[in-house]
## 1
Amino acid sequence: MLPAFDAFDYIVVGAGPAGCLLANRLSANPQHRVLLLEAGGRDNYPWIHIPVGYLFCIGNPRTDWCFKTEAEPGLQGRALSYPRGKVLGGCSSINGMIYMRGQAADYDGWAAEGNPGWSWSEVLPLFKKSENHFAGASPLHGSAGEWRVERQRLSWPILDAFRSAAEQSGIPRIDDFNGGDNEGCGYFQVNQKAGVRWNAAKAFLKPIAQRPNLTVLTGVEVQRLLLDGGRATAVRAMAQGRQQDFKARREIILCAGSIGSPSILQRSGIGPVALLQRLGIGVAHALPGVGGNLQDHLQLRLIYKLDNARTLNQIAGSLWGKMGMGLRYLYDRSGPLSMAPSQLGAFARSSPEQATANLEYHVQPLSLERFGEPLHDFPAFTASVCDLRPQSRGRVEIRSVDAGQAPLIQPNYLSHPQDLQVAADAIRLTRRIVAAPALQAFSPSEYLPGAQLQSQEQLHEAAAKIGTTIFHPVGTCRMGHDAQAVVDAQLRVHGIAGLRIADASIMPRITSGNTCSPTLMIAEKAAELILATTTRSPAPEKQTASPA
């Protein structure tokens, strides 16, 4: 049923992590009529909520946009699957559930580039505001928020051995990656509650479902923004099989993510002039940076065969093992079905010249040739390592004005020489860790990329062969004040009144870690900025209900 109001105060486009939080905060004032639009469906698919169910959500058109990149020259011409959540909760419904803020230096760097209000000391309270940390309130953590953070509910001897090997290799043990300096090795903390995925829809929407001033619509795909005199006043969308315009009296906030937000802008005639003219789209406002500055973490998945080890490969490879996993999860929500995709993490420096840790490891007690294929029939673990601060930059461009056509996504992985150097150094560091005494009881042998690859050129080729996305695209509507910036430090789109962006696309530089919780922080910041503006502006006139 479509809403009966002729206009809303705020329209939030996209019900991913940012959109869910923002809808919650803006609708807390009963005077604000808030509309949240989501192109996907409800989050009622059972595999969303069982942690290991990400295997059945990624690549599933019910929950994933199923995007693909262009053929990547830096990856031997391979085109990668590029998962993005298409469901309430967005990527928080299909991701790895890892709670990670990044490093203090990330945010201090944003502020130093001319974005006041975004330093570590200023964003830390925003992280804490939404957090519900298992250890309670502290100078670093919050306990009164909605975003549940817990310890994982299982451990593995092979992962414990990797942690000891990392320590023997100079990477210290660490219990908390979220204090501003995440260098070290330890088990990830996760966004779960009692062994069940805790997505943004559960955290921020379900508790306020009865607010009469909040309307949440699913299955509504925004085609474009409507402008009037340089102001964004409405969104045009396909809803229930027909075109519908939704009007905003105060602001429209795009939370459609690093692929969706630039695509909506470009379809609205806001973006690079050459692209818009090539597609026959009228130029409403020239913003050359829309869709540029795409950054992502490329993971190199090194696989090691083992002796004397029990991994998920063997457990999931038998009927009895699968039955045992299911019974254990039914009994106490633990065991392999409660697993985040990666359990053990490590942050390290690829070389002594790095000021802070520039590598992140996701270590898994399993292996497979590529995502979506069966596990190997031999015991093994995967040490996936990514460059946290890539220098390569890509782009997102719509192919036509048709919202149903997937955009061009070109990350340009390993196109910068520095990224190739870091990749080679990362492989060498991984080999040093695996050669440490703590792992030798398991007799690890390198399955991929292969121990025979040793020269710099061979390691570059290996990175191109095994590299794949770890699903952290950011930066395509960059915050800043130069000619390529799309939003200012208040998240207002340059040159368009009544329009903000609050998602990972605004990051000037990618954070040093997983990007879901930083995206929530961005939305928390946006809510404060918007509400501060509201208190300084006249109250809106009373609305008259009318059929939509």
## 2
Amino acid sequence: MFQTFDAKTTPETAAPRMAQLRDVLRENGFDGFLIPRADAHQGEYVVARDMRLAWLTSFTGSAGFCAALLDEACLFVDGRYTIQARDQVDTKLFSIEKFPDVKLGNWLVDALPDGGKVAFDPWLYTKAQIEEIEKHINGRGVELVKSENLIDQIWEDQPQAPLDKMHAHPMEYAGKSHGDKRSEIAQILREAKQSGVVLTQPDSIAWLLNTRGTDLGQTPVALCFAMLFQDGRVALFIAPEKVDDELRDHLGADVTIYDLGDLSAELIRNLGPIRVDPRTTPIAILDILQNGDVKVDFGDDPITLPKAMKNKVEIDGAITAHIRDGVAMCEFLAWLDRYDHSEPLSEIDVVKSLEGFRAATNQLRNISFDTISGAGPNGAIVHYRVNEDTNRTISNGDLLLVDSGAQYLDGTTDITRTIAIGKPKREAIRAFTLVLKGMIGISKLRFPVGLSGREIDAIARAPLWSAGMDFDHGTGHGVGSYLSVHEGPQGISRRSNAPLREGMILSNEPGYYKEGAFGIRIENLIYVKSAPAIRGGDDRDMLCFETLTLAPIDLRLIDRKNLTRDEREWINAYHTRVFETLFDLVSADAQDYLTMACAPI
């Protein structure tokens, strides 16, 4: 099993750890310390060594931060994690605020009316993040000061950093050599008259050099830093234990490998201008450059956009990966459909079964995130992670929300299905149908070139809005190619300003959550492609989406009378495609299930 079910944190540990932290604050003359859920690479996922937020607060969500002061503390989480935070955290010790509704800077000013010094680790914060906080505290008495990491000073059994090997990612999956990629990005630097760019995000470096790793487990990258120069050369900064001769041969003469300890000296060897992404580069690296009199140009990581626009090989790989994953999903759904309540079935049983069907493909490299298996009220916890303490037996009448994904060499998958266990309630059918209508709306959409996810997000929400309902997460996120299951700059949400482009892969996952009762989410992966011309339409470049995910949507949860004719036709066409693609690839039991599950409505 790739997934484990131990309860990684407990609220009872927070009080003594907070007491230790406050002792250190007093010793250093600080009034507070900021603890983000981040590492020096600013990725969503972090290794055990960098789980400082969870260690202090016991909150294990993938987004959040804490402000710990001498006499109070606050955990900030977004709408996905409000229920989870209340369940995991000692609320007598931590207040919980929802961001971005509540700004950290404003909270600090209110909590420190007489002013004070609040420390932060410059390796864990970017220029953009600190400027956003300072915008709300300037002139109001609160000062942010750089510091060594105070959590590291009191975390006695802090895990060691992983030292697994970085390895080559074959051309048959990458579709473009790393030499061609380096030349392509170097041209961007030359046009901007920049001598190089600092690269801090491991997935950018993995894409650029056609490498992968296992440091983050479910995200197949090796933790490292790099600099790309305008002539296409690269300086790679990585722990020497992660490098072997096979990797050196793959990288070639134009990639020079340095120890991580050489980073500071090498950063200031060039006069610049050096490109730095203010949203992803640690302030510590910016300080090294500026203290070394290196000219800095601020700009986006130039790899983010090319990485998001998958080439033909990557799209073909994604299609193949989703057929394989569709087989595993259908075997799983058929297994679940045979459940007759004669034996107890738990959320953990569901996770183990699904991973087993994926492992049976013999091509599973890892899961792409911990499977969310939430029955009944647990399904309303958007990013619920089942453990031995929370594991719930699935009961007749429950809705079961299963959000899962896989990492294959040819692609990354992410799929959510909500399944009725027994006869569903009318309230659940109504909500499910509204969510489905939004998902179909995105799936069928044609839109002009240049639109961003922000401009189409409302299409997924409109059916829910019409009923006075909504959900507190984005409609869709970008997905990598055997890389991170959450990738930018593409997305479908109110915060997604990047124009959608051909080759981008996104999720399409509206939902609805009734606290204490049930959760609903339906998710397919889609990719952006050029839309065919329509006779009689304008001569205007348009884009559309092609659905990658192949698995039945539970017909028992659909109120057919609340679907339009076009929506029914979409469901039937989708299920016909699922049936025809997968039928000959699955077991006899799964064939029987597919025949029933894909019946036209």
## 3
Amino acid sequence: MSGHGAPAAGGERDPGAAQPYDEPDLLRDQFRQLLRYRWLIVLGVALGLLGGGWLGIRGADSYTATTEISVRPLPIDSSGEKTAPGETSMGSERRTALSSVVAERAARKLHTDTGPQRLAADLQVTNPPETRMLRFAYTAHSPKAAARTANAFATAYLDNREKDATTRVASMVESYEKQRAPLLKERDRLAEEIASSGKEGALDGTLSAHSSVVNRIAEINGSISDLRAEDTTPGRVVTEATPPGAPAGPGLPLMVGLGAAVGIGLGLLAAWVRLVFDPAVRTPGDVVRALHAPVLGTLPRRRRGGGHSPGKQKRAARRGRSRSLLADGRLAEEYRSVAFRLAYDETFARRRRVLVVPPRGSIDTALAASVNLSASFAEMGKEVLLLEADLRTPSLTERLRQADGVQPGGVSRPGAAGWARAPGHGTIGWPTGPRVPIDAGESGVFDLVPGHRVSKVPRALTSSAVTQLIGHADERNSVLIVLAPAVLSYADAIALIDRVDCVLIVCDPREVRRDDLARVRELVVGAGGCVLGALLHAEGAGAEPRRRGALSGPPAPPDRGSPTREGTALRVTVR
């Protein structure tokens, strides 16, 4: 399995262009990340189905009947003035139809004990655009009740409007009659005065005044006659409500379908929100964006035996971790792929030294990666030196002693003589002794400088003896691999970066946060180093456990011209 992300080989590193995603690839990557929260999507669909089913069942026993009426303009408006022909405020009429006065009239017509407010709660009054019509729609639990109540509200509205018009006309007639009463008295007085007057000049003035009063009285009588002749019909029923034959709701199947669609939308929205606020790394793309460096490889998961119980599988996994330190099969091919990518990386080729570290947590996978990368470089014919710089909890020596094919005792291989002790070694306690040759079978041999517990770790890591060891990579055809504790747990790795330069991050993307990777990159770059890339693994990734006489899974075919590691074992020669 090849790594993801931009290739490490060739050209200088451009942090801004570490992830050349096209838009379709980015959308596919985001959609795959959303599918990691399937439980949120399933929860959204379940809620949508429940909500749609509830609405569908609730609408199955509700019926809506509709009555339509045309509204006729009244002759007199509320201020007592005559209205222009065709002038009606439909907004005001609609509010009047929904008023408590109309609801009280409708309740009296229905002879019901239900209060007017409760009765009007299920009423809807609408005005179709560009019309003088009102549509009364009433919803009830039975078809007959819905039709009866809708007709009652329409009739109550028309009665209320007719009564209002009649009251306005009567009020105007009464007002005119009050204006006419003093004029009638004045007319009678002037008539008596004319009858008793004997002077011709005085008679002319009285006759003129009498004529004016009579004309005014005639005008008022005409207005009263016109008012009494006005048609106060408020409107008429255009469509009378009849009992509906089907429920008002859209139906249970349609509501369930709509609920499912809405639920999918809500589930995707919840998954997206969860993804935005999730600090964990979920994909190789997240690793690339956080480190500004490519993913060099992804270790395959270890296959488990099909017929074994969980207890036997766990014991087999523990035995595989302790005894099969050198990988084989697909896992070995992945390590070889990473080693080849590093070998052709320009940054690594200039210095030929790499610091293998995890961001935080256990160092087990980084330890296995350093051993297998050393074997892969040895297979290429490189002079490899593996330096275990974990001086707090060193475990590589013990792991090697438990590996298959251990041959304790013996002598160092020729040419692997120890180094001269620098001043102060006796007080620091590390590094001391010769290099330990590690026989990786057909892959070749590499040297190991094992770690030891010391009391002054910072002083030991910055000693001149360590600097001399790191200088091993300056020799021709040599490679130095340094194993150090987690970067965010101790500063040991940071103390080595100024001399090792290149860093390989080994991490489980599901167990590390994006902030952790960004912090690791800041520390490495701030110390003058460079992140070559990341090696990803998952829980259960590692050497495949062997069964007697065969591997637990079929190994990957070897490259032409290169030996495989199948059947090989680590052989350690110590003094």
## 4
Amino acid sequence: MAFIPPTSSPERQGPLRPSWFRLLPSLRGYRSAWLKSDVSAGLAIAAVGIPSAIAYPAIAGLPAETGIYASIGSVIGYALLGPSRRLIVGPDAATMAVLAGVLATILQQMPGLSPADLVGAASLLSLGVGLICFAASAFRLGNIASLLSRPILAGFFIGVAISIMVGQIGRVTGLKIEAEGLIGPLVELARNASDIHWPSLVLALAMFAILQLVRIRPVGIPGPVIVVVLGAALSAIFNFEARGIRVVGNLPTGLPSPGLPRIAGLPLTQLFLGSAAIFVVSFGAGIITARSFAARTGEDVDPNAELRGFGAANIVSSLLGGFAVTSSDSRTAVNLSVGGRTQLAGLTAAVVLALAVAFFAQYLRILPIPALGAILIAAALSVIDLDGLREIWRISRVEFGFALIAMAGAISFGVLQGVVVAIIATFVYVIFKETQPRVALLGQMPGRGGFYKLHRSLEVQPIPGLLICFVQGNMLFFNADHVDEQLRGVIAGHAPKTRWLVIDASAITQIDSTAVEMLENLRRDLEGLGIRMGLSEVQSNVSALLERSGFNAAIGREMIFDDLDDALRAFQAAPPGTLQEDTRPSRT
């Protein structure tokens, strides 16, 4: 989210055009009166962040401390280069699910990796994501956030959420689930139902119920915070570990020394492809979060500037032994609700998390794993946007179908392969839309100026002898036949009284040689019928290509009009039956 430093109204932030390495942009114009709000917000962010920081790494099979390192490093990195004052970055369920898929693929290729090597691989992937972010920003590819459309992202996230929930079966039941995918773990659960550790399951269900109750009836304290505090207290009182309920275990009591992650033998191709997959999902989801909160704060989102912020967040997370991150909706929401003004709130949260690791690790180690599983299941459920799906169904059945394809891809083929399915589905959807541009016939309304689509109103009447066809899209090799078929259908329905066919090209921003050949064939056929072809409102780049191809000369430059009014005047002035002479009325 880009902004300008506050002037007379600090609440409304406009776009700032930062240089590439403008450090701490959100602290420019800082006011001492904001310090109390930022510190308070930082404390709240840390309180909310600790549960997810400890729980989310489990999705990818990483130790709990990596989530804390990622939470600390990411906010420091984003504060250094991130453009938004209030957006908070950190671990994200969807990003973790894709990371889990990438790490699973790496483990298949390198089965001898130790847990420490797996942490190194996750940090390398985070470094790769950060470098891709900077490269994309350098080439101003911020619009790559639109690579996955909202309907496809909605479907994909539902698939991710289901995968995350299935992945928690072992944590909430105490079973050792070895199967992967969707059906395998459920079958294994049914087969080993007699071995379920019921105290673990009861604890998980109780904690999940608390999370849902707090969601329905807020009490001023976030549900995950209540679950973590209550779970730790119960674990200390009843000694859960001795009763067979798994706990987090020992955590490091300090932060790692900053440094580049190293892991011998990791294939560079797999590293790049994995980083790219994580980048697509994390940035796509992150920019949606950024835009949704920007609507509340009055900030403007600059995707290229956000790329630099996300890039710095991922790189610093990597240097501290963390994993890939993106914007966090829960932490950002807490920041806004408490009144955080700048990234100093995030930096405060980082300090608090570092102190928690240094002085309270012994209390965090007794956190029960079933409680963390309940937090992850609740987080996964929050990702499922059924209202959004219903809205997509109401607006477009086709887009709803592509949302289901993306959801099925994530569930059936795994999250990592689901990213590929989602991207392919996006391109198929784009091609589907682009291959069928509509051709509308335009006419006029009695007593009113301008031109209107005939199918919109019975009052719109065609102009006798003049067909004006509005091509609603580009004309390229994959849709040239479709446009040709529609144009010929319009002509067949209005022959033999038609003398001119004028194509309104105002919506055509791209054309290629295949489409030009189609137009030339159509022009020849029309000439045989005594019908002249003309063009109106041709874009400059389209006109340049038509000029180079010789098409402009073929139809006659007098048949290329600035607008439809110009075309109508020329048609009305043309004697019936003329094909060659310039009948354009004088403008003088």
